[in-house]
Design a protein that fits this description.
The protein is α/β, with parallel strands linked by helices and 238 residues long. The protein has a domain at 26-143 and 198-235. 26% of the residues lie in helices and 23% in strands. The protein has helices spanning 11-21, 42-52, 82-99, 113-120, 131-135, 161-168, and strands spanning 26-30, 57-60, 103-106, 140-143, 145-148, 151-154, 172-174, 181-187, 192-198, 221-226, 230-235.
Length: 238
């Protein structure tokens, strides 16, 4: 009876296999969604990237919801009302939650619009539901800033990632700037750090994005950070 043939891995093939199975944080960084105004296909792109690189951790870089109806800027008078927009956003976010039920979610400037307005109205925080309650995502962890493998993750209002990483001398991943997608390394005598702008997943043709009509084209993509030492961007084919 013939024995099963089991080829042995060796050389670079073996190294690649061992890299894939070793225990380390392999992070998918998902760009700004601005639901319900996210680009069709961006979810599948992120799911494919997660599988392609055998990733095991997910970070949403902020602005998962747009809150256009309550913006501090001019809103579209022909757009959806608050209740309608929120319900549609929750419905669309449910698909992200199904795909990535455990995730860390950075709070972006659009995410916090409602809580800011509550403060303006002197409404005590006890009256306000948590983000996970409103968005129906009980296993998501909403934070303003976090670290994984000594890499800082934040939404990134203000300085861009390559500037902040050098200023803090800490590798930094940010979103917020829809037209920026890059990973830039700075190397010193005794240290090296990177700054990553993740790009985004917005639909530039939606009425909520009309404020950016004169900006460069949005950079649709996401980020990958492995063990805090390998970092690169994936761009979506459009």
């Amino acid at each position: 009876m013939k024995k099963d043939f089991r080829p042995r891995l060796k050389n670079n093939v073996k190294k690649a296999y061992l890299n894939l199975i070793k225990k380390e944080n392999r992070v998918l960084v998902i760009g700004d969604l601005h639901e319900p105004f996210c680009l069709d296909g961006y979810l599948q792109f992120c799911k494919d990237t997660y599988a392609k690189y055998n990733l095991n951790k997910v970070v949403f870089i902020g602005d998962v919801i747009d809150n256009h109806y309550s913006s501090y800027h001019e809103t579209d008078s022909d757009g959806m009302g608050g209740g309608e927009e929120l319900e549609l956003a929750i419905k669309k976010i449910s698909k992200w939650y199904k795909a990535f039920p455990k995730a860390d979610v950075l709070l972006g400037n659009h995410d916090i619009i409602i809580s800011r307005k509550a403060q303006t109205g002197s409404i005590p925080s006890k009256w306000i539901k948590s983000y996970k309650e409103v968005l129906e995502t009980p296993k998501w962890n909403f934070v303003h800033k976090m670290e994984v493998d000594n890499v800082a993750y934040l939404h990134g209002i203000g300085s861009k990632a390559h500037i902040r990483s050098v200023k803090d001398m800490q590798s930094t991943v940010q979103g917020h700037h829809h037209t920026e997608i890059y990973t830039m390394w700075k190397v010193g005598a005794n240290a090296k750090v990177f700054g990553m702008q993740t790009g985004c997943g917005i639909n530039k043709d939606s009425y909520a994005m009309v404020y950016g009509r004169w900006f460069p084209k949005p950079a649709i993509g996401c980020g990958v950070v492995i063990g805090g030492k390998v970092a690169f961007n994936e761009l979506m084919d459009l």
